Amino acid sequence: MGKISAAILVHNNEETISATIKSVDDIVDEIIIVDDYSLDNTIEIIKNLTCKAKIYTRALNNDFAAQRNFSLEKCSNEWVLIIDSDEEIDDILKQSILEEVKSPRSAAYNCIRLNENIAGATEVKLDRPILMKKNLFFKDAIHEMISEPMTFIKDGKLLHHCWFGMSDFMDDLNKYSTWKAKKWILEGRKYTPLFLCIRQPLVSAYFFIRRYVFERRFKHRSIGFLYALAWSTEELFVGLKYYEMLKMENKS
User: What's the pTM?
Assistant: First the structure.
């Protein structure tokens, strides 16, 4: 059976990284850690938990695809388990991954991710690989993905501990809306204020429907409604931050 590398991107994840490492340590031969200059005890925790970790320091620079691809370059095995620093795989998924490596059906696989947050736990299909060949590449700086089709692993779940409170949630809204606005600037988009007034509410509505209906947040009733509504406001902040950045760029 082929050997497996695990690739994990970290940044100040001392609260979650222990569960992540423990969930993969017994099925992989090496753990590639790419650290975006953590200031907490994340790296010390990793060093104390496993001797399989190879740790690299590299700035994220708002580009998750580039960071993922860097981690793949450092892997020495054909197969790579892609897991985030706030995720863990259950025992059933472990066995499914080992079976797929033993008798491959595909070059990339996804699975069910169980998102745990203030609204409760919701199952969604992972839109990036959980397991892939190291010669594949990620694209898109934010919400990175691969171009190749993924085969679905039906048995087992990837547990995702999204946030530890509303402050953490708000930090993510602020961070991702800033990254998206910067991406628009880099892409040279030229949106007028009027266009933003039309576009952003429509995109917000799309994301609300996606999270509340298609990701089944309605199962959590009123809290699920508020959660989906709060998430949808990210696009409004993207529009405002983009306009602010564009004004500053035009002044300079």
Answer: 0.83
